[in-house]
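Quick one: structure for this chain?
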Amino acid sequence: MSEQGLLPGTVAKAWSDWYDVETPAGRLRCQPRGRLRLTWQVKERGAKLTESERALAAILVGDEVQVRPRPDGEGAIEAILPRRTALSRPLVANVDRVLVVAAWSQPPWNGELVDRLLVLAGAHGCEGWLVLNKVDQPGDPEPRLRLYEAAGYRVWRVSAVCGDGIAELGAALGEGVSVLAGPSGVGKSRLLGALVPERAASIRTGEVSPRLLRGRHTTRHAELLRLPGGGFVADTPGFSRVDLAHISAAELGELFPEIAALAPGCRFRGCLHRGEPGCVVDGAVDAERLRHYRLFLTEVEAWEAKRY
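Got it. Here's what it folds into:
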């Protein structure tokens, strides 16, 4: 505890005006002091805040705070520290990594959605990890997994049912905050339960629908669960928005690491890699990944046209 009697903590759960905060002294149920809230957007934009911006201006699960314990066993949130990152759907602050969970055969591999989620993770300042679940089922995903590893992604091969790779993945998540995302049926909730066994019975998560690209909300509020080896994993309602509306065409290539590595060799500065003469990515980047990049490029350009 600091000289001012404050404890550092991480908001693990939020509802109404109450917050469960994980502190070195254990979990405290807290309320914010007075009218405390994040005001950086409010001061800058005033009443012009969008619905999403107003949500981000609240105290979020994942926020790092300072709390003052009270004699009644509860506490008061005295300050919120600056955020490193923030996701809007789901609303979670200070996310370090997004685990993009996929399967190879049941359900079939959905490379477009995998790449979309990896791009979104990077756009929010988070590290994107690819986690292939159900490795006990038939199929040979290794050529594709090695391609992602060669591009620079961390790739994990696990089975939430059999336990393969779970201990290794859990150990790698020992610091920071992790969020899971993935299409329906890949076993995201079972994987979350395998990582946090004592909470397995109560975990109910939604997953991204590969058809609608929207979430099925079975968990209504995000909550951070402490992993046995340290760190937190978020039990969230799922990613309910996976469009690329806030990514620019100029930055999209930076979110594909293999394209970003090759880009300095392009003939023209600012090349968007859509097949321009002398573009070095043609023939050097996996055809499926390049097709997804160009599909996303068309999408972000359409969003840009609507904005301007």
